[in-house]
Design goal:
Elements (H helix, E strand, L loop, with lengths): L1 E7 L5 H8 L4 E7 L4 E3 L4 E3 L2 H8 L4 E2 L7 H10 L3 E5 L7 H4 L6 E5 L11 H7 L4 E8 L9 E8 L6 H25 L14 E2 L15 H11 L5 E5 L2 E10 L17 E5 L2 E5 L4 E8 L6 E2 H7 L17 E2 L9
Parallel strand pairs: 1-2, 1-6, 2-5, 6-7
Antiparallel strand pairs: 3-4, 7-8, 8-9, 10-17, 11-12, 12-15, 13-14, 14-15, 15-16
Helix pairs in contact: 1-6, 5-7
């Protein structure tokens, strides 16, 4: 019987956990996860999905406030673990911890490494306009997502892929991946292939400030950003002293019927009716299909405009958009 300890903090890991728990010769002995935090509208302190899953099965749960170090290493030695599996944990693991277990630490990462290392590979795939991404199983090292890759499961992206839909695909793809590779890990044959550092790209944590929209970007880029950042922090635009949140947006394929589309200042409202709010961008026209006022519900454009008209010719303010993907690590990303 092989003994696994799991490190994770997000519900995306649940299908993988369920698969491992169903294996006859494997025992999940404990879970490490992030501390309980306020969440939801009422900001009540709640356990995350991994903690709930582990507690329902009577597993020990450890939730260190800081990056786990020597104390966690001692715990793993006491538990007699063979291997650790990591998925969406939220901390870069310390070297002293990685040297604790006989078979090592292995991470399921939501991209085809070395592309999109870091905290937000799903969002990064969408804003990058990728047609394909996937999940990789890699050996964990003390640098961010830099370990050798054992195997990958490829995942196609639809043209209208959203963060939520891609998360579901990635969660499902982790199951056949771990089913293939877990026997290699247990046999000690999980060497993996080193990553090509020259083509690595990086993502970063998303913050509330990433909700800004710059209409000088292309319509395609803006539509992808809306899909990647919904529901939180979303993409917002200032209007009359409040922030309007965009719940859905798409690039208008045929702009010939929209007057002055090619000449308008980016951010100009070109059309506002039941089909949506069409806005000029740096290249192309963006149609806002769903909008929301503060404290109100997200509404289709027709219902929103019935309560808050948006005059044609008005100009939405543009605000700088920070890059979500880069060719080098973001500042402090791997500290």
């Amino acid at each position: 019987m092989k003994r696994i300890v799991f490190f994770g903090s997000d519900e995306i890991a649940l299908p993988c956990l369920e698969h491992i728990a169903g294996e006859a010769d494997v025992e999940i002995v404990a879970a490490f996860s992030q501390p309980d935090r306020p969440s939801g509208r009422g900001k009540q302190v709640r356990a995350n999905a991994v903690v709930e899953w582990a507690r329902q099965r009577g597993l020990p749960v450890f939730q260190p406030q800081e990056r786990p170090g020597e104390e966690a290493a001692a715990t793993l030695r006491e538990l007699g673990c063979d291997v650790a599996l990591v998925m969406a944990y939220g901390h870069i693991l310390r070297r002293e911890l990685l040297e604790t277990l006989p078979l090592g630490f292995f991470n399921i990462h939501g991209s085809l490494l070395p592309a999109l290392r870091g905290a937000t590979p799903i969002e990064g795939a969408i804003v990058s306009g990728l047609a394909e991404s996937g999940v990789c199983l890699q050996r964990v090292v003390s640098r961010l997502d830099a370990g050798a890759v054992l195997d990958a499961e490829r995942v196609p992206l639809a043209p209208d892929e959203t963060r939520l839909s891609l998360r579901e695909k990635m969660a499902a793809a982790s199951v056949p991946l771990i089913a293939r590779v877990l026997p290699q890990i247990f046999s000690g044959d999980a060497a993996g292939v080193p990553q090509d550092e020259t083509v690595a790209t990086f993502t970063r944590k998303i913050t509330r400030e990433d909700s800004a929209a710059d209409f000088h970007a292309t319509a395609r880029e803006l539509a992808a950003r809306v899909r990647a950042l919904s529901p939180w922090p979303g993409v917002t635009i200032p209007w009359g002293g409040i922030e309007l949140k965009i719940g859905g947006a798409f690039e208008v394929e045929n702009t010939g019927n929209i007057a002055s589309a090619a000449l308008a200042v980016p951010g100009t409202i070109l059309q506002a009716d039941g089909r949506g709010v069409c806005v000029a961008t740096g290249t192309g026209v963006l149609c806002l299909s769903h909008l929301q006022r503060p404290t109100a519900k997200m509404l289709p454009a027709a219902a929103f405009l019935a309560g808050m008209p948006l005059p044609i010719g008005s100009v939405f303010e543009s605000r700088p958009m920070r890059a979500l993907v880069a060719a080098a690590p973001f500042k402090n990303l791997d500290k």
